[in-house]
Amino acid sequence: MKYFSRKNLIILGALLLLAVILTGCQPTEVIKEVKVTVVVEPTAVPPTPTEEPADQTAYHVAWESGPHSTYDLGHGPNDWCARCHSPQNWNPEATIGRPPNCVSCKFPGKDIVEGDGNVLIPEEEWKAVPCETCHIMEDGIAGENAWLNPIAMEYVSVSNTTELCEKCHVTTTGNAFGSGVEHKITLGGSAHLNYGGFIDEETPPTFCTDCHDPHTTEPLGCVDCHAEDIEQPEHAFGAYASMRDTVTCMACHDASGADVGPHPDEDIDLWVTTLTEMGRSGPTTSAIVSHSIVYEVACDRCHYVDNEWELTVRTADGSIPDPDAEAPAGPPGS
Fold first, then answer.
1. Which residue, 331, 313, 310, 333, is CA-closest to 321?
2. Which of 88, 126, 166, 239 has the smallest count of CB within 10 Å of its CB?
3. Given this model, what pLDDT does residue 31 score?
4. Listed residue (99, 97, 106) closest to 74, CA to CA
5. How far apart (Å, rounded) are the C-alpha atoms in residues 6 and 262?
6. Whole-angstrom distance, CA of residue 331 vs CA of residue 293
7. Radius of gyration of the chain (CA)
8. What is the mean pLDDT of the chain?
9. How many of the other CB atoms lie within 10 Å of CB of 303?
10. Contact, 285 vs 300, CB < 8 A?
């Protein structure tokens, strides 16, 4: 029994030794990094690219060719002159002083001028009308329409482009004296009678920008809206057809009472509406754009008997009068 136990112990020890040896002979586990390329399938909707700012080069070019990009340096550096010569600095909502007398303009060395409405703006500070006057600027890009008050340097919201234009072009003693204001008063009353619904088939203008480019201020021509009208028989045949290139539409359709005749510049062969103003040096006649227009035309306004231009005598409806009939000399109403 004692022998058996010792033998068993020897065998058990041998087995344990063998187990230890076999364990040491097992290979060591090695961990390796394996790079795996994962292919991502494209989605049905591509990602939205970053939006680039709109190219407004064309607007800048147009603006540079218009009156809003320029300003004048003239006599009498005072608040009266500055409202037209420095529209960016001028605040049309401020009180307007009375105009300077002749001395303040003819003799610019005078220190005190006859204007007391706004702060005097020296000539060296006169500015034009840049983009930021009419647009809220973001990173150099013109955005929403708004008017920049040049005194408070704060934007004033506007409901439409006409309200924006009226910030400067509405008062009879403001920037638009003698031009834009007259158009505003007559628009709908004479220039476009359909504004009141008199001509159902015609679409009336709604905003200033319907007829004027906001950057160049250039107006549309009559034929831009009334191209079909000039092809009608009363315009396309006979004497009317020959006058198309030498007579403006307004020269015939004007209802403002302006004078009508040859262009003041003799090199321009065109019959236009004109305005004669009397200054200290004498009368000055210039061609104007009439905004007061009527549909019906009275030909005898120019083609009256013994007219100074030796035009063919015609009746109001354009027909040649009976040579035996006695017709009054001079324009109608004279």
1. 313
2. 239
3. 63
4. 106
5. 146
6. 19
7. 42
8. 70
9. 20
10. no
Distance between CA atoms of residues 133 and 153, nearest Å: 10
Tell which residue, 176, 165, 166, has the closest CA to residue 83.
176
pLDDT digits (tens, 9 = 90+) for 99-138: 555 555 554 544 444 444 556 677 777 888 888 889 988 8
pTM above 0.90, yes or no: no
- Classify burial at 115, counting beta carbons within 10 Å of its beta carbon; exposed 0-12, middle 13-18, buried 19 or more: buried
Report whether pLDDT(271) > 80.
yes
Q: Average pLDDT of 65-92?
A: 63
Measured CA to CA in angstroms, residue 54 lies from 58, 94, 139, 177 at distances of 11, 35, 11, 36
3-class secondary structure per residue, the chain: CHHHHHHHHHHHHHHHHHHHHHHHCCCCCCCCCCCCCCCCCCCCCCCCCCCCCCCCHHHHHHHHCCHHHCCCCCCCCCHHHHHHHCCCCCCCCCCCCCCCCHHHHHCCCCCCCCCCCCCCCCHHHCCCCCHHHHEEEECCEEEEEEEEECCCCEEEECCCHHHHHCCCCCCCCCCCCCCHHHHHHHCCCCCCHHHHCCCCCCCCCCCHHHCECCCCCCECCHHHHHCCHHHCHHHHCHHHHHHCCCECHHHHHECCCCEEEECCCCCCCCEEEEEEEEECCEEEEEEECCCCECCCCCHHHCCCECCCCCCCCCCCCCCCCCCCCCCCECCCCC
Higher pLDDT, 286 or 119: 286
Other CB atoms within 10 A of residue 240 CB: 18
How far, in Å, CA of 122 to CA of 184, rounded? 31
Pick from 238, 231, 271, 230: which is nearest to 252 by CA?
A: 271
Residue 328's pLDDT band (cuts 50, 70, 90): low
Sort strands 282-288 and 271-279 into parallel, antiparallel or unpaired. Answer: antiparallel
Q: Name the one residue in this structure whose structure tokens are 């060719």.
A: 65
